């Protein structure tokens, strides 16, 4: 059927009780706007923007005359205009005029079906039915919202409690931490003092060691020279002045000397007793010295003694040197070498006639004195060292304790500094874990930290790490998740929806690797959720105050208590609530000042 | 992004292309253009005047090129059929063939395989030729058959328009027994010169061919067909889609115009990330070529579904084309006509015209790989309404199925597809699901089980069901050559059978080249076997169309022929237009792809497949705001309008961009919706004449040589010139408006002034869509903004009249119920509006299909709406005294507004479209 010019000007007021002025009823015009659509005495209509006058009969004639489209409130003739559905028995609504006679019953806003009247489709009035349906669910809805608000208060309280507790813990820990730090400073000073002493003691001790060492080296050198000389003499043709036995004895003496040296007390304390720093130091000294010794050692061991005499020369391996304890990983000394005879050589004419002096009794006495002094010093030095060890151990214990406090402090500070929403409402669920199992995956949200996805028998994938709240705390962004093959790094936009419980409601992936999670939480409930519940008088809704106050909850409670069957906030009440809310806010600010 | 070119053959990697090209080169090198081995045996010529049929024997003596010991003599049968339309069909085959029956694709590809022969034929014979002059005195066509060398020429007005074998390239590889001693010895080879190399090439890969890791066994040996078709006097040829090259085809040898060295290839292939400006084969193939010069047009059709290569060589005066097909029949048609439209009409009379689509199909389609689940679909639907964006169809890609088992649903994501479709239907919208031709090998999948049990799959070269790899993994392909297989597929669309399908569910078929991930060149091995032992090589290019056809018939059957099917296909061939729309496949979010969408859709359109479009925004990657807007502004003026994106691309519904984008996309979409009455009339015209809805400029201005190579602006019908903004950051645009006409700005209705040469330069903002209305036209519109085309069903019309220099204009308007076949029984309104002498006249339009409009007033009332507004531009509006409507002698005075000196708007004549013989008089 095509469009029929229908008479849409009624002459009676729909509701006699509320109707103060007797207006002509114009199709598609809200009652409150009827005044603007009245017939002028000369039967004209003035376009509402003031630009243009048309015959009154051109109103709703399905042809757009006025530039602002105001002459066609009841048809789809003018672009960008609105049509009013009266929805008698329910709440009136505006819909875009483009939805008038478009073959679709827009019952969501137009329950009376008045948007379809050209016969293209039948849209019977369903206001009563839908209103009943709405009524039947409204109380339930209100209860849910009420519960959600209560939960919200609980969450705030819980969060406040947690913040308080954590703050107390923080302060306690800070105090303890400071105390430990003071103690630590004291010990550090003591250690420092003692270390000075120890250093001086060690310097002295080191000097002594070097002296002793120097003597010893000279002795070795001398001895070596003597042997070499004798070997030279012996190798001379026809020279039998030197008996092999003599030579043998000398070598034997030498070896005994060496053994004796070996039995002397160790100069450097054993490694295990050392503190780390010292160890490094002493190792340095030892290293230097060992190199020198090896030179000496080598020179001797490579000298050749005729093998027809076949005496054994005990080589001086680094291990046998009276110096530092050997590094643990040095292999044991090589087996004694057979010394090969020297090839015949020209013997120099000025051969020394006697063996060199190998010993000096005066020196021996001096040595003994020195050694005793050295022992004493060593004793004293070790005592200092023991003290230091004890102090240092104490220092690490305190340090550990202090660090424990610091960790607690850092953790609480981080938790406190992270955005937990308005009134820190999400503080109490920080790091709490929520899961949702879908057909393919299990999603896990660790509040304030991360979101992960687990495929059954599959890998665990990081979808995102907490980044920030957005959209006035209605969404939360988790990003920088695992890299997608052929795509971006995964991320999740979490939409917060007012619900009684904290729970994941739904997860979807509208674009590859860009997830959207609906998370139910009392934390996000605000005034708009209450306004959405009230009997919608019309859609010209008020400015919504995102803040929520205890007063508001109280109001809902009262409404529910007083008239459970009319558990609906009407506009006045909401206005009152808002006013109260604003007042309390102002008071709060006032108090703060 | 770039195609992996090495995965697809070049000519020198294709045995028959190498052989045929070498043959042509040999002819050129040896100057033997006039020494064809083929000779017509004069006394064999027989002329059946009643059937317009000339038959003759042709003898091939093969000793002039090949150095064979024994000269070969082979006899052939030649048929020439002179058609009433002035066209000539020519067939050629072995007189005797004991090896293989060549596959005749014409019964599948052509709607009218026996076109009416010409009755009036005069013949004249001389020593070396026969001349046949046929058709009526006013439009005579002459065919000259030359005996030696064998050639055929079509003459119009004393000039040869098309020639066959004028250049001596004709080389028909008759079936032969493999000769073991055929090869030339090694020693000889060394001595051979350039010519001998060519000779060698003429014998390349005759008995098998290996490309990459696949070997084609070629059990029947060489059987290719090569020949030259010349267009003397023509500098421009068009068609042979599908390629990404310019509208006017370029030379393909010796670094041709665009550096082409490869012939245009026709071989339906699923080419991942295809490149632009290339003769490479992609998803579809139509071996139809159009030639045009300012006073003459010609066309050529090669009815053959095997792999084909076409070389184009243009000189300053002529165009030579070299056609090479791997196998199948030699079956060609020459078309001649005064204009491109004449040629297309005769071609479409034979190949078949596109059926009238449903109204919704001409509106906007919203697609994505993938809308994930029911909630996702409903949310997208809701958002379109929320932002007052119109759309008609929501699409579901492969992820909606249970593991790529087509005809099933992933019930975790779509637990109640029927309820979902009901919700979409309640808004007046439709849904499309994808159904691909590969069937998952799974005995628990009823579709596979049924097809396997009935042996309905294509076989491999061992004659066992072929198993290849595609989306679901291991898969088999239905053999649509087998009549039972098509019947079986048709039955799959029964509502009972396809669970979860409802009457508003339509179908998208993809991957029907066929795409076989594991196959050579991502398709099926050529030695696969179809029903009747037909090799895949013989039917490859029509496989997609056969699937398209069966799907179309499935949709007809499920509604007992009461509902017009809507099927979108990716692969296509001659005749695919009879089964639905096609799109240009997997394009990229790139400005060059936007540009390429114009020559691509125009080429496909002029080859018969006018209902086509390119994915808006580009399938791969992410269009930025500007490209996104420009793409919508272009696409709404192309026949098939669909937004689509890859699964790896970001979501890109308009509301995910900024407010400006939403507003400009809305404006662009309403350009489409406002013009739907005009579009629908054009779709009607195409269904009757085959002339595409969107046309290259030269279709409308065939005498204007400046337009022969223009492919960045086009015509929508005869009356709207569209020059989309195709450059990033473009701040002004130059439009060529043919000076033969008066032009109006489509939006403001103001006459535009070009410079002397016809160029108009205008600044372009992001909202600019340069569209111009031709003076002398009347365009029907619907200006009310609705959420879908169905919601506009009862909206009144506006007539937009732009007067020409003589203050005249005319136009047509067609409407029917937009859904059923009722129009075949006269349930339609078809009007002609003529404005002359200050009077707008309305009368019945007598469509060439000769179906009479119903006389049942009540029936027509169902589809009739009133005219609410008449806008006349280019009129002397100041001195109008009054305007009146005269119906059946009753005069009614009409209100009007003088908008400017030359524009008047008549308010609501309130005359129903069903009314005829009324007039509106402008009185001075």
From TrEMBL, chain A:
Residues 1-19 form the signal peptide. The keyword Endoplasmic reticulum applies. Keywords: Coiled coil, Disulfide bond, Endoplasmic reticulum, Signal. Residues 323-346 have a biased composition (Pro residues). Residues 414-527 form the MRH domain. GO terms for biological process: N-glycan processing. Residues 269-372, 572-593 are annotated as: Disordered. One of its GO terms (cellular component) is glucosidase II complex. It comes from the Eukaryota. This is Glucosidase 2 subunit beta. It comes from Anaeromyces robustus.
TrEMBL record, chain B:
Residues 110-134 are annotated as: Disordered. GO terms for molecular function: carbohydrate binding; Glc2Man9GlcNAc2 oligosaccharide glucosidase activity; glucan 1,3-alpha-glucosidase activity. Keywords: Coiled coil, Endoplasmic reticulum, Glycoprotein, Glycosidase, Hydrolase, Signal. It holds the Pfam family Glyco_hydro_31_2nd. Pathway: Glycan metabolism; N-glycan metabolism. Residues 78-311 form the Glycoside hydrolase family 31 N-terminal domain. GO terms for biological process: fungal-type cell wall beta-glucan biosynthetic process; N-glycan processing. Residues 177-205 form a coiled coil. Gene3D superfamilies: Glycosidases (3.20.20.80), glycosyl hydrolase (family 31) (2.60.40.1760), Golgi alpha-mannosidase II (2.60.40.1180). Signal peptide: none annotated. It comes from the Eukaryota. Its main location: endoplasmic reticulum. It is found in: Endoplasmic reticulum. Residues 354-682 form the Glycoside hydrolase family 31 TIM barrel domain. Residues 690-779 form the Glycosyl hydrolase family 31 C-terminal domain. GO terms for cellular component: endoplasmic reticulum lumen; glucosidase II complex. PANTHER family: ALPHA-GLUCOSIDASE, BCDNA.GH04962. Belongs to the glycosyl hydrolase 31 family. This is Glucosidase II subunit alpha. It comes from Anaeromyces robustus.
């Amino acid at each position: 059927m095509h469009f029929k010019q229908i008479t849409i000007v009624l002459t009676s007021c729909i509701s006699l009780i509320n109707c103060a002025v007797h207006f002509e009823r114009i199709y598609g015009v809200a009652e409150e706007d009827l005044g603007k659509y009245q017939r002028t005495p000369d039967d004209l209509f003035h376009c509402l923007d003031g630009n243009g006058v048309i015959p009154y009969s051109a109103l709703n004639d399905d042809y757009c005359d006025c530039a602002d489209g105001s002459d066609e409130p009841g048809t789809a003739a003018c672009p960008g205009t609105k049509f009013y559905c009266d929805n008698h028995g329910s709440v009136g609504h505006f819909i875009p005029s483009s939805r008038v006679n478009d073959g679709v019953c827009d019952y969501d806003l137009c329950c009376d079906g008045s948007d379809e009247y050209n016969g293209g489709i039948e849209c019977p009035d369903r206001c009563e039915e839908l209103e009943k349906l709405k009524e039947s669910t409204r109380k339930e809805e209100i209860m849910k919202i009420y519960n959600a608000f209560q939960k919200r208060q609980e969450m705030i309280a819980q969060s406040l409690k947690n913040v308080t507790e954590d703050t107390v813990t923080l302060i306690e820990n800070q105090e303890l931490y400071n105390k430990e730090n003071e103690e630590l400073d004291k010990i550090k000073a003591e250690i420092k003092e003692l270390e000075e002493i120890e250093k001086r003691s060690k310097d002295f001790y080191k000097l002594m060691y070097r002296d002793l060492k120097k003597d010893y080296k000279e002795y070795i050198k001398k001895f070596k020279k003597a042997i070499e000389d004798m070997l030279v003499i012996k190798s001379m043709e026809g020279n039998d002045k030197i008996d092999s036995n003599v030579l043998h004895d000398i070598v034997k003496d030498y070896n005994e000397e060496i053994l004796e040296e070996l039995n002397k007390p160790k100069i450097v304390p054993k490694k295990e007793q050392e503190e780390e720093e010292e160890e490094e130091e002493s190792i340095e000294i030892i290293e230097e010295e060992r190199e020198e010794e090896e030179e000496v050692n080598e020179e001797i061991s490579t000298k050749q003694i005729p093998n027809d005499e076949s005496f054994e020369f005990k080589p001086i391996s680094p291990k046998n040197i009276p110096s530092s304890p050997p590094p643990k990983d040095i292999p044991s000394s090589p087996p004694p070498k057979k010394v090969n005879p020297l090839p015949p050589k020209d013997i120099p004419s000025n051969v020394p006639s006697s063996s060199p002096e190998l010993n000096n009794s005066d020196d021996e006495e001096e040595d003994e004195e020195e050694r005793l002094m050295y022992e004493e010093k060593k004793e004293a030095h070790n005592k200092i060292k023991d003290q230091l060890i004890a102090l240092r151990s104490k220092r690490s214990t305190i340090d550990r304790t202090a660090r424990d406090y610091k960790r607690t402090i850092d953790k609480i500070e981080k938790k406190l500094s992270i955005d937990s929403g308005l009134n820190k409402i999400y503080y109490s669920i920080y790091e709490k874990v929520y899961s949702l199992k879908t057909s393919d995956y299990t999603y896990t949200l660790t509040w304030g930290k991360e979101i992960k996805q687990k495929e059954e028998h599959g890998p665990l994938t990081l979808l995102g790490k907490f980044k920030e709240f957005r959209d006035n705390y209605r969404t939360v962004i988790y990003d920088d998740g695992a890299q997608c093959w052929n795509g971006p790094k995964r991320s999740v936009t979490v939409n917060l929806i007012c619900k009684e419980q904290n729970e994941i409601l739904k997860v979807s992936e509208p674009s590859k690797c860009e997830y959207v999670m609906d998370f139910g939480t009392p934390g996000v409930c605000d005034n708009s959720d209450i306004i959405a519940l009230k009997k919608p008088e019309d859609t010209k809704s008020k400015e919504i105050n995102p803040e929520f106050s205890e007063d508001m909850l109280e109001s809902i409670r009262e409404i529910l208590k007083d008239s459970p069957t009319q558990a609906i906030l009407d506009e006045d009440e909401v206005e009152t609530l808002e006013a109260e809310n604003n007042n309390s806010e102002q008071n709060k600010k006032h108090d703060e000042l | 992004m770039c195609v992996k070119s090495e995965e697809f053959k070049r000519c020198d990697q294709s045995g028959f292309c190498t052989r045929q090209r070498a043959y042509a080169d040999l002819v050129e090198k040896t100057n033997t253009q006039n020494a064809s081995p083929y000779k017509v045996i004069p006394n064999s010529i027989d002329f059946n005047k009643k059937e317009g049929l000339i038959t003759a024997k042709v003898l091939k003596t093969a000793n002039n090129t090949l150095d064979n010991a024994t000269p070969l003599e082979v006899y052939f049968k030649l048929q020439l059929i002179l058609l009433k339309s002035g066209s000539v069909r020519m067939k050629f085959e072995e007189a005797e063939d004991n090896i293989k029956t060549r596959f005749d694709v014409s019964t599948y590809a052509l709607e009218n395989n026996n076109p009416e022969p010409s009755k009036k034929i005069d013949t004249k014979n001389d020593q070396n030729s026969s001349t046949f002059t046929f058709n009526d005195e006013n439009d005579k066509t002459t065919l000259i058959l030359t005996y030696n060398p064998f050639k055929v020429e079509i003459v119009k007005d004393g000039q040869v328009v098309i020639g066959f074998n004028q250049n001596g390239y004709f080389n028909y590889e008759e079936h032969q027994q493999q000769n073991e001693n055929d090869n030339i010895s090694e020693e000889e080879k060394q001595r051979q010169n350039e010519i001998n190399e060519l000779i060698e090439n003429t014998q390349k890969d005759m008995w098998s061919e290996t490309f990459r890791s696949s070997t084609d066994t070629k059990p029947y040996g060489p059987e290719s067909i090569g020949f030259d078709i010349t267009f003397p006097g023509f500098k421009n040829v068009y068609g042979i889609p599908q390629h990404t090259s310019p509208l006017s085809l370029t030379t393909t040898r010796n670094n041709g115009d665009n550096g082409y060295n490869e012939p245009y290839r026709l071989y339906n292939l699923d080419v991942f990330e295809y490149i632009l400006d290339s003769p490479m084969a992609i998803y579809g193939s139509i071996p139809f070529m159009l030639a045009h010069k300012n006073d003459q047009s010609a066309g050529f059709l090669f009815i053959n579904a095997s792999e084909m290569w076409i070389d184009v060589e243009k000189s300053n005066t002529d165009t030579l084309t070299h056609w090479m097909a791997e196998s199948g029949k030699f079956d060609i048609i020459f078309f001649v006509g005064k204009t491109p439209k004449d040629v297309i009409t005769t071609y479409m009379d034979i190949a078949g015209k596109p059926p009238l689509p449903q109204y919704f199909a001409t509106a906007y389609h919203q697609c994505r790989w993938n809308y994930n689940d029911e909630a996702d679909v409903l949310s997208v639907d809701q958002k379109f309404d929320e932002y007052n964006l119109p759309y008609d169809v929501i699409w579901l890609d492969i992820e909606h199925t249970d593991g790529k088992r087509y005809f099933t649903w992933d019930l975790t994501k779509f637990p109640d597809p029927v309820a979902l479709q009901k919700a979409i239907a309640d808004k007046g919208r439709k849904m499309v699901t994808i159904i691909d031709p590969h069937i998952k090998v799974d005995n628990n999948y009823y579709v596979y089980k049924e097809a396997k049990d009935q042996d309905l799959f294509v076989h491999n070269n061992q004659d066992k069901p072929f198993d290849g790899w595609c989306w679901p993994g291991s898969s088999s392909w239905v053999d649509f050559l087998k009549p039972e297989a098509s019947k079986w597929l048709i039955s799959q669309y029964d509502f009972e059978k396809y669970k979860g399908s409802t009457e508003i569910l339509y179908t998208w078929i993809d991957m029907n080249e066929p795409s076989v991930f594991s196959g050579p060149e991502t398709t099926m091995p050529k030695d696969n076997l179809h029903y009747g032992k037909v090799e895949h090589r013989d039917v490859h290019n029509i496989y997609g169309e056969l699937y398209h056809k069966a799907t179309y018939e499935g949709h007809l059957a499920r509604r007992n022929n009461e509902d017009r099917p809507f099927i979108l296909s990716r692969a296509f061939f001659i005749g695919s237009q009879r089964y639905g729309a096609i799109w240009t496949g997997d394009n990229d979010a790139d400005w060059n792809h936007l540009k390429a969408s114009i020559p691509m859709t125009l080429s496909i359109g002029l080859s018969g497949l006018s209902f086509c479009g390119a994915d808006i925004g580009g399938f791969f990657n992410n269009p930025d705001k500007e490209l996104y807007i420009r793409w919508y502004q272009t696409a709404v003026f192309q026949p098939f309008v669909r937004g689509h994106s890859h699964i790896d691309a970001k979501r890109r519904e308009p509301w995910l961009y900024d407010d400006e984008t939403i507003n400009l996309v809305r404006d662009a979409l309403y350009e489409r919706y406002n013009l739907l009455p005009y579009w629908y009339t054009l779709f009607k015209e195409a269904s009757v004449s085959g002339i595409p809805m969107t046309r290259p400029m030269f279709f409308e201005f065939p005498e204007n040589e400046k337009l022969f190579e223009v492919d960045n602006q086009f015509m929508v019908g005869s009356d709207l010139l569209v020059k989309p903004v195709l450059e990033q950051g473009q701040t002004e645009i130059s439009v060529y408006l043919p000076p033969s006409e008066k032009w109006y700005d489509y939006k403001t209705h103001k006459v535009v002034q070009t410079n002397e040469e016809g160029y108009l330069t205008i600044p372009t903002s992001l909202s600019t869509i340069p569209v111009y209305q031709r003076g002398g036209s009347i365009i029907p519109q619907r200006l009310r903004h609705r959420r879908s085309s169905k919601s506009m069903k009862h909206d009144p019309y506006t007539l937009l009249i732009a007067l020409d220099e003589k203050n005249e204009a005319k136009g047509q308007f067609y409407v029917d119920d937009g859904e059923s076949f009722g129009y075949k029984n006269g349930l339609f309104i078809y009007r002609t509006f003529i404005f002359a002498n200050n009077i707008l006249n309305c009368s019945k339009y007598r469509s060439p299909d000769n179906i009479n409009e119903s006389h049942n007033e009540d029936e027509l009332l169902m589809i009739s709406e009133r005219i609410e507004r008449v806008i006349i531009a280019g009129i002397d509006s100041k001195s109008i005294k009054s305007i009146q409507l005269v119906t059946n002698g009753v005069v009614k005075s009409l209100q009007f507004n003088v908008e400017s000196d030359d524009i008047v708007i008549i308010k609501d004549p309130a005359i129903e479209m069903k009314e005829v013989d009324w007039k509106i008089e402008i009185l001075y």
